[in-house]
Amino acid sequence: MAITKNKMVSLTYDLRVVGADGEMIEQATAERPLNFVYGAGIMLPKFEALLEGLEQGKSFEINLACEDAYGEVDENAIIELPKNIFMIDGNFDDEIVKVGNTVPMMSTSGQRMNGLVLNVSDDVVKMDFNHPLAGEDLFFKGEILEVRDATDEEIAATVGCGSGGCGSGGCGSGEGGCGCDDESCSTEKSHGGCGCGC
User: Fold this and answer.
1) pLDDT tens digits for range 100-110
2) pTM value?
3) Are 1-72+134-198 and 75-128 the same fold in CATH?
4) Residue of 15 and 22 predicted with greater confidence
5) 1-72+134-198 maps to which CATH number?
6) Fewest C-beta atoms under 10 Å: which of 20, 65, 110, 134?
7) According to the 3-state scheme, what is the secondary structure of 86-100?
8) pLDDT band for position 64 (50/70/90)?
């Protein structure tokens, strides 16, 4: 059976950043594969398009330029926020809001996002809301483990999950919801990649 719309796909992959000394930054294994409904709009569009037609047992290699992955680094997504918004009961949590940590935030419109803390000063916290893989060309190498018809429940579970995927707090499910969850991808570094469109 070939990968087409509304098929449940299970696959493995190694993800490397092109030009980063070949270091593997993320992996989905046979024990913890990436499972998703093909055509549900959850995966990176180019990644998904290049999988179409592949069958169980087929291997693949996919190169994605940054514009087909998580885009260029957006300088407008690097902002300074007033330090007082991080106060809880009058105290600043310097164990969580410290340089190098990723902090879950919410926009004024209610959208969940993750911000990387770049700097903490007396009055402001400088954060980067770009995807961790923004500006990077990506290389995926893997194998298709299974292709089958998705159940009505699996297809229904993908409705409204356009921002799901690994590490995004979306509605992904390792059992075949929309995209992968933290348990369906073993990661050396948590980048929220997985080919997911988050």
Assistant:
1) 999 999 888 88
2) 0.71
3) no
4) 15
5) 3.10.50.40
6) 110
7) HEECCEECCCCCCCC
8) very high
